[in-house]
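WARN no homologs supplied; continuing
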Amino acid sequence: MKTYTNHAPGARGIRTKDGVVFLDPGQSVDLDPKSIVGELPDLGKKPDAESGDTSEIDDLKSWVADLTKQVETLTSERDGLAKDKADLTKQVETLTSERDGLAKDKADLTKQVETLTSERDGLAKDKADLTKQVETLTKPTK
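OK structure emitted
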């Protein structure tokens, strides 16, 4: 048995007497070299651990960290805005309720003014009638 590892960037298939064995990148399989039919596909070369350039990976990790921080900031801002919206909605509801109460008070006061005006008009008529009666009674008779 021999271990075959796919170091190539894509999946590779090894034809054997029992069928094709597919290997994803980084995947290994133990096969008997005698069971392989035809030539082996290009499985790539094992990368050197020391000679690998990690600057691109480091740049990507830094970029991911920056994006993660931005997401956290935006999420925090969104949550703050949602709380502000809830507070403002509550204030609007309170002010609307107060406005409705004031409108009812205005209607009640308007009704009271109408009643008092009607009573005043009635008293003014009564006064005019009484004044006429007084004038009639105090008129000298001939």
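The first strand starts at residue 2 and ends at 5.
OK
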